[in-house]
Specification:
This protein is α+β, with helices and mostly antiparallel strands. The protein has one domain. Helix content is 22%, strand content 31%. It is built from two helices and six strands; from the N terminus they run H-E-E-E-E-E-E-H.
């Protein structure tokens, strides 16, 4: 199991390990704005989760997901949680929540 002290460290090492696509949440999908990769929750698996909580600033609270698609795409999704979390579909929320619980450090 990999552990990192910061979001920057986690993202850097995941990229070195081949997770090169930068994913973003888009309500009921994850998308890459630089490529045509666009995945629904049933098209990918979360293989690692790293959560970071800021000491005093809620804006520092983030989760880093290492994602692999059924089509061989590997990428990273960095998302805020709590008050600043993106609005997502119930299906996507369930996928992220279940995988966070399964991979909690």
């Amino acid at each position: 199991m990999y552990t990192y002290d910061t979001v920057t460290e986690a993202v850097g090492d995941l990229k070195r390990r081949g997770y090169t696509i930068d994913f973003n949440l888009a309500f009921d999908r994850i998308v890459c704005n630089e490529t045509p990769v666009n995945l629904s929750p049933d098209e990918f698996e979360i293989v690692e989760v790293h959560r970071y909580e800021g000491n005093s600033d809620p804006g520092d609270e983030e989760v880093v997901y290492a994602i692999e698609s059924k089509h061989g795409h590997k990428g990273i999704l960095v998302d805020a949680f709590g008050l600043y979390a993106d609005e997502v579909s119930s299906e996507m929320l369930e996928k992220l929540k279940i995988n966070y619980a399964d991979h909690k450090n």
